[in-house]
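pinging the channel bc i need a second pair of eyes. not urgent but kinda urgent?? the chain im working w is below, pasted from the shared doc
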Amino acid sequence: MSGCNGCGGCNGSEKQNGVKRRTLLGWLVGVLNAGVAGTILAPTLGFVASPVREKRKPAVWVPILSDGELKEGETRYVTYELEVQDGYMQARRSYSAYLHRKGGRVVAYDPSCPHLGCHVEFKPRKKRYVCPCHGGVFAEDGQRISGPPPRGLARIAAKVEDGRIWIEKV
């Protein structure tokens, strides 16, 4: 008995219209598995790749002080406001930074402690930044000295141009 004669005696297990039933079911299961995998993988890959696809807004340079207002070796806490898009509204937001001039160069630091985000305070007598929440201590150059913070203070890009000190707000 080499082939199916269509008598119905083999319950169609050999061939049905030239295709084996097991082969057809195998392909059907494979297509269903591919559909399930695609349904799971597509959103996952989209989520993972979203930072790459996201268009980064251009940085805004904000004038903070005139160049003569920050003396050599001085550290100063400054605040500034920006108009930002908040949903469908324009809102005014306040920001702050520490400016420090050393060797004629101006450096800016984010005042948020890298441990839990508390605002650090600059202690001019000791020339240290201290976090009042958990006792983190940072050197005048923003490097971590002691305490629970995992790293030093975040630097903010700063420049002196046209007689003004500017910092970059991303």
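so DSSP finds one helix and eleven strands in the chain. and The first helix runs from residue 21 to 53. — does that match what u expected or am i reading it wrong
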